[in-house]
Amino acid sequence: MYTFRTLKLEDIPQIYHLIQEAGLNLHSSKDHWTALKKWSFFDSPLYHSDLPAGHIMLANDEIIGFVGYSYRKLKRTNKIVPAVILSDYAIHPKHRGMAGLLLCRKSIETFDKNNLCHDIVALHHSEAAGKIWKSFGAVALPGTNRTYSALMSLPKFIVARYPLLKPCSPLFNLKILQSILCPYLLKKGKKLFLASQRGQIQIIPFEFNQANELLLDELLIRFETCYGIGLYRDRAYLNWRYRTHPFCQNYYWYSLMEKEKLRAVFVLKKSKNHNIHLCDFFFDPKEQFLLNDFMVALINTSLDLGGFSFYTKIVCKSIRDVFDSLNLYVEEKSYDQYWIYPQLRVSDNILFTMGDFKDD
Fold first, then answer.
1. Is residue 42, in this structure, part of any structural domain at all?
2. 100 vs 260, which has greater pLDDT?
3. Distance (Å, rounded) from C-alpha 99 to C-alpha 105?
């Protein structure tokens, strides 16, 4: 017999052990994971005490299942509606099957039948989880199975893995050596971004707390016209998502400003293993013809930050077309990772970013 109760702040350290047993977040320390989930579930500006921060599933008073709720705003059908992102959905391996279906049903009943009136956004890491959501009538957002990447510096990449080769690093820029190594690296999911693709646009650091609020608001309003379905972005959301993040020091903001007009803002994240992730990107649709140069400048900036690999998971048709034109490496999972309930008509006009998907 399974029972449920709402998540309390003091439960989070205990939930960490369930997450580990379920095979999730295996590389996150307890302190790191606990800080992230406190921020995600309890510190959202849209969360209040009348809303559940998550649900715990029990069997004979033992915790065997969990799902956390992170509150956001969602744009769909020309409306801005309250939404909840389901996070860290986990079932103990001994209870998988019916327990997973019951936990999904609990989430749907909570937000669909208890007058909370929130859309449900389900992010997941398995094909089986996607099938569960489909059985409840959720719809997948196409293209959310894609991750784009680029290897920015072959010497830095090799030296990081084989430090003894550092004296030989200049040799890895030789075309003849690259022609030998690149086909092998491509099989490993690493594709070299060629220097000949680099553009001329220069982007500069962006100070969010010192920025002209009116210019930023105007840019976000113009950017909103680029997508029909996606998490809604305003200054309050960006402040919470990146500036109040428990590890905000890992995020770097850049912008393109010309003639007192804010044309684009980018948020990059630098990981300990020298990977750079493009988490968010807002631009003026009238500047769409410059998107190619924007992206090239971002990759160059990522190299300047000390990264040697660039990753992003942005799904937005105009940006996706740029990634394809730059011939970035594309990894596609066999399943989409982003589902929405209740079901809605899905077009190609979708926005989905690595900042939506990864909160670490």
1. yes
2. 100
3. 10
Residues whose CB is less than 8 angstroms from the CB of residue 39 and which lie 6 or more positions away in sequence, other chains included: 244, 245, 246, 359
Between CA 30 and CA 10 the distance in angstroms is 13
Strand partners, 79: 76
Domain extent at residue 127: 2-137
pLDDT tens for each residue of 201-255: 778 899 988 888 899 999 999 999 888 888 999 999 999 999 999 999 999 999 9
Reduced to 3 states (helix: H, G, I; strand: E, B; else coil), residue 325 is: helix
Condensed to tens digits (0 to 9), the pLDDT of residues 135-149 reads: 888 888 888 888 998
* Dist CA 60 CA 80 (whole Å): 41
The phi, psi pair for 65, rounded to 5°, reads: -155, 155
DSSP string, 272-309: TTSEEEEEEEEE-GGGGGGHHHHHHHHHHHHHHTT-SE
DSSP string, 198-263: ------EE--GGGS-HHHHHHHHHHHHTT-SBEE---HHHHIIIIISSTTGGGEEEEEEEETTEEE
For the chain, what is the domain count?
2
Find where tokens 């391996």 sit: 93
34 domain residue, yes or no: yes
